[in-house]
Amino acid sequence: MSRLSTRLLNWYNKHKRILPWRDHPDPYAVWVSEIMLQQTRVETVIPYFEKWMKLFPTIKKLAKANEQDVLNAWEGLGYYSRARNLHKSAKVVAEKFNGELPRNLDDLKSLAGIGKYTVGAIASMAFGMDEATLDGNLRRIFSRLFDVKEFADSPAGEKILWSLARENLPKGKAGDYNQALMDLGSTICLPKNPKCLLCPLIQICEARKKGVQELRPILKPKKKTPQYIDVAVVVLRRDEVLLNQRPADGLLANMWEFPNARLAEAAVLGGVKSKEIVKSLKAQTKIQVKQKEALGIVNHAYTHFKVSVHVYQCDLISIPK
Ligand code: SF4
To answer: Ligand 1 center to residue 103 CA distance, Å?
Structure first.
């Protein structure tokens, strides 16, 4: 075993986090946890994971569930395409693989929502295979340990980082190795202010030796995030509220929402005007309203854009038939 993996695994044996999907290497549980953990913190995931496993304890149960129940169980976790892909893939696994997650890496990769990272995580943690993986935590750790100067989010940087993850992988212990790196990245080798003095790898960390750990990984310069202004209308009729279902494809597919429209940049210069709200909503949704009072502004950041939603109570004039 390399110096890196010996030190790392010794540390992991003493400090590993107790997580509900660990020590029960049910491939389905590992799969669900890995998908939930994408873009989401462990503390947030734990209650969702526990609820999910009660509602859909097997792949076959998940395959038979209806989509709305699946989305309800995911509600609040965000990035709903993850839930849809889990559901879609469960149907394939139930049909093609008798409800058992396949061990063959190409079969695993063919499932919706399972990329190179998830394949490595499932293969090592659930099947004990000698497979490396590379999530954001691991990318950061290897960039720092080996002072990688390529952009970590470029194809060349990715290639170097995957090689480092593979070269240092201890045979027969890949599951622990990958999980130890994930724990180290979440608790010690943090993006900002890494706790180097507590790190089991401090003696072999190149970036720390040079004092550049906070400058690694090096990432490509970010493009400016677009900022949009939307209007959303709340139309009440007795105890009913008007909702619109989003299209079956794209962002938040099939979800229900208050009717809304995006305002053109020119239209919001000098403030959101009543005439523009009514006009944009009619043009984009064919819903005609009469604006009443302003209810507030909700700001939300998605991965690729930010939006400020100006919310108004309105009276309904007409909706498309
Ligand atoms: S020494 Fe510091 S920068 Fe290096 S791996 Fe450990 S925590 Fe990360």
So the answer is: 34
CA distances from 213 to 5, 159, 160, 221, 280 (A): 20, 20, 18, 18, 49
Protein residue with its CA nearest to atom 2 in ligand 1: 196
pLDDT digits (tens, 9 = 90+) for 8-31: 999 999 999 999 988 667 899 999
- Per-residue tokens: 292: 């009443």
What does the pLDDT read at residue 24? 65
The catalytic residue among 34, 95, 214, 276 is 34
Q: Into which CATH architecture does domain 227-318 fall?
A: Alpha-Beta Complex (3.90)
Contact call for residues 180 and 15 (beta carbons, < 8 A): no
Cα separation, 82 vs 80, whole angstroms? 5
Mark whether 276 is an active-site residue: no
CB atoms within 10 A of CB 203: 10
The 10s digit of each residue's pLDDT in 205-245 is 999 999 999 999 999 998 888 999 999 999 999 899 999 99
Top CATH class, 26-127:
mainly alpha
Q: Return the residue matching tokens 């953990």.
A: 37
Tokens 């879609």 locate to 88
The topology under which CATH files domain 129-221 is Endonuclease Iii, domain 2 (1.10.1670)
Residue 217, preceding peptide bond in cis (omega within 30° of 0)? yes
Give the 3-state secondary structure of residue 244: strand
d(CA 290, CA 275): 10
